Amino acid sequence: MKYSHIIWDFNGTILDDVTAGIKSENVLLSRRNMPLIESVEQYRSCFCFPIIQYLKNLGHDFEKEDYNAMAIEWVTEYLKFSKESTLNDGIEDALDKFKKEDCRQIILSASEKKMLTRQVKDLGISDYFDEILGLDNIHAISKAEMAEEWMEKKKPENALFIGDTIHDYESASRMHVDCVLVARGHQSKDTLLKCGVPVFDTFYDMLDFAENQ
Description:
Oligomer: single chain
Distance between the termini: 6 Å
Number of helices: 10
């Protein structure tokens, strides 16, 4: 395998937390008597970064409400529902294969770092990772700048970024590293195909691709 470093997104990529995300947001929508998210397809069609734009897509008006307060409200609900979330199918096999290939594995996430580190530990996969990189706040604005800083500091020889959203592709582009996307998370396959990078239906397909590079 040509890759020395594997850079993983977390939410929707490693962690199958789409249902947790929908349930969390539906609590907020219900409290405001707003239309609920009725399907995974609907959710994936409106989800985007920055998160504030996704919330606007759902009808939230931040001229009337404080975004920071809503972020806290959402995270409170997410922490409840995400306890039910599990690893995406095929993730453990991929993590194990990359470890056996002596790849350094890094999580790069727009999640708050303490919450992220706790989730990784609770899933029992901490030992696979050399670094866990998250934001210092809960607002999930962007991880692209953090990605650039890491790249400038570490200068990996050959890196592969694995994610599930356009924002992952954008982060990989700013790092000038290869990127693959797996349509198992927060955005639809049709959306991901617009990025012009390999898009896979399963993590087993992704792993086959990576092994043959």
